[in-house]
What we know:
Layout: H1 8-20, H2 32-39, H3 42-59, E1 67-72, H4 78-86, E2 92-98, H5 102-115, E3 121-123, E4 131-137, H6 145-155, E5 158-166, H7 169-182, E6 187-190, E7 212-214, H8 224-233, E8 240-248, E9 259-262, E10 267-268, E11 272-279, E12 282-289, H9 294-302, E13 308-314, E14 317-323
Parallel strand pairs: 1-2, 1-4, 2-3, 4-5, 12-14
Antiparallel strand pairs: 5-8, 6-8, 7-8, 9-11, 9-13, 10-11, 11-12, 13-14
Helix pairs in contact: 3-4
Amino acid sequence: MKWDAIDWDALERLRAAFLAGDAGGQDYWRSERDLESYDQTFAQRIAWKWDYVLNELERRGWSPSAGELLDWGCGTGIAARRFLKHFPAAPISALALWDRSPLAMQFAADEVKRVYPRLAARTGLPAGREIGTLLVSHVLTELSDRQTDELVAIANHASAVIWVEPGTFETSRALIAVRERLRETFHVVAPCTHQAACGMLTPENERHWCHHFASPPPEVFTDGNWARFGKISGVDLRSLPLSFLVLDKRPQPSLPTGAARIIGRPRVYKAHALVLGCDASGVRERRLTKRAVPEEFRRLKKDVFDPLQVWKCSEDEIIFASDLPNSIG
Length: 329
């Protein structure tokens, strides 16, 4: 990374706009240097969230749809670049990069062409209505209701959708609303282990939200420049909460009976843990004891657990837990 080229004042200005909640009101990119500075800092944190999601899709045996790839609200194009890195052999006919900012679109296109010179990459929306895979990243906090409706309409013309947002209560709930609007048209791939209505929508779960945690690379904790960035931005470099949604119109393999997902971080006590989990029966907090499931309890205590699991339960107690097998189907 070119830390000496970063405009720290620009990062402070961008962060202030994000915190004020008015970033959606206008184009906040003033120069190419703004984009370069953002791409090496804030965008890297977004990249690690995309890695979390794309690693899960690879593990689940998912593959991209054929056709044009659209990165909607592309910013610096970090989502498209991570996608192309994870799926280098994807049957992509072209890449379209769209953003309200012409400066951002051009920056994103140049960065993609630098890494993938043979890929047909262009700015603007696809010429046709049909889209192979739609990528959406960190946009819901900047969209009006009308703009969200327009984006959902675009999503309906895609074969697959991968949507990543911050792991806050508000964005998670907004993404759940998108899921409910699209699940009759698409198969839900992730984070859910089922196709039913979201279990978060029941009255007893109104205080919860669907969020998960990605991990930054180890060098973040040993590099003084990242420490400086953390101080300026006011973000906890150790924590990368995210919400995400993956949809696909193609049939998806069935998951094993008892497939469940851990939401957020469990509350671990001396001899038991309380785990908020989602499965076909809904979202509920279950108890896992050290005596009944000792190995999984140790992993929960060390915060090294797999969020995708297969459970056997007796009422609200987990009596067996194992990691969900890779490459389902």
